[in-house]
Structures are given as structure tokens and as C-alpha cells.
Amino acid sequence: MCGAQPGGPDASTLKPGETTIQGSVTRDGEPVTGYVRLLDSTGEFTAEVPTSATGQFRFYAAEGTWTLRALVPGGTADRTVVAQQGGTVDVAIAV
């Protein structure tokens, strides 16, 4: 189960008690716009959100192991994260 926040995270939309995976996508230290996909532990597609103008994204997900796949013009990058129930995982993805 996953809920995605389109257009990147806004602090006012953070849901206390929810399992959250959020972060930003950069290239050479600069924010990159594109998409981030959330894949489950078997590699199956679960959700996708566009990044904000500042490269930020947020997913609400179940606890477990997830792969984040950044898809931006000219590149892709994967990051594996482990989310704990009710916790927040902050992720920086460099493409």
C-alpha cells in the first residue's frame, strides 16, 4: 500500500504517524526535475510521483524494503531504503 504526494513534498502535508519516504534528486549538486518510482522488494512497480521544481518527492508507504528509481532527462539512479512503521526515511538521490 502506498500513497504518493504529487509535485513534491510540502511540510504542511506531512502525516504524523505515517511511514514516509522522502527526499530529493540532484545532478552535480543541483536539483533535477523528473519522476521517482517506488518499487517493492521484488522490483514490482508500486507508485510514481513527479519531483517538485526543487527536485523533492514524497511517498507514504508500508514498512519494508523499497527501491527508489529516479528518472530524469539524461539519466536514472536507484536507491534501496528500509522504511520502519511510522518513521521517515530521508533520501538523497544523485543522478
Structure, explained:
- This protein starts with a strand and ends with a strand.
- Helices cover 0% and strands 58% of the residues.
- The radius of gyration is 12 Å and the shape is globular.
- It has no helices and 9 strands.
- The strands form 2 sheets. Strands 1, 2, 3, 6 and 9 form a 5-stranded mixed beta sheet that branches. Strands 5-4-7-8 form a 4-stranded antiparallel beta sheet, with no helix packed on it.
Task: Please give a handful of descriptors for the protein shown.
single chain; 95 residues; mainly beta; five-stranded mixed beta sheet; four-stranded antiparallel beta sheet; 9 strands; globular
Task: List strands and helices in order, with pairings.
Elements: E1 2-4, E2 20-27, E3 30-31, E4 35-39, E5 45-50, E6 56-61, E7 64-72, E8 75-83, E9 88-94
Parallel strand pairs: 2-9
Antiparallel strand pairs: 1-6, 2-3, 2-6, 4-5, 4-7, 7-8
Total helical elements: 0
The structural class is mainly beta
How much strand?
Answer: over 45%
Largest sheet: 5 strands, mixed
Calculate the mean pLDDT score and round it. Answer: 89
Q: Report how far the terminal alpha carbons are from each other.
A: 27 Å
User: Percent range for helical residues?
Assistant: under 10%
SSE run: EEEEEEEEE
Can you count the beta strands?
9
* Overall body shape: globular
Radius of gyration: 12 Å
Low-confidence stretches: none
Write a short abstract of this structure.
Helices cover about 0% and strands about 60% of the residues. The protein is built from no helices and nine strands.
